[in-house]
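User: Can you help me understand a structure? I only have the sequence.
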Amino acid sequence: MMSKRLEELDLQEKVSRKGLLAWFASNHVAANLLMLFLIIAGLLMLARIKIEIFPELDINWVTVSVPYPGGLPENAETQICKPIERAVQEVDGVKQIKSYAMEGNGTVMIELDDYVDNMKALDDVKSAVDRITTFPEQAEEPEVSIFTSRTQVMSLAVYGDERTVPRSTLKELA
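Assistant: Let's start by predicting it. Here is the structure, written out as tokens:
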């Protein structure tokens, strides 16, 4: 009798050493209740899942584009991109600045830190760019916007011989 009691204590000690998983393995009711809770919670959250055909990624970039008709890339760099870079360096939450000078256009892309509110940063960048008074006369108004990216999730191609399958049937199948 005493050896049986010692074996039970030894078994309980081994189970207690294995942790939470071992406890659930020995308590079937608790494991089933947890599973039921997770299934119900999953079903309740299923209605709240956001489904998009073209998901929009929040990239945390603000772009400033200044059309400069007839301007050379060198002039776009020195007269448009560099002043914008200097002006937006003071904006809170700027992580990185990249500029692209092309013929007829100067574009500056500002990467923001993850914690920054994009709309506030957009307003701050607009204010900083509006304070610049040294743009060339030929340059147009700066366009400041939040860079968004839409990626295609799925592409579908339906094919059929037009002599045997009418176009309306293909559209219906698609």
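Now, to help you interpret it: The beta strands are 56-67, 94-102, 105-112, 143-150. The first strand starts at residue 56 and ends at 67. Let me know which part you'd like to focus on.
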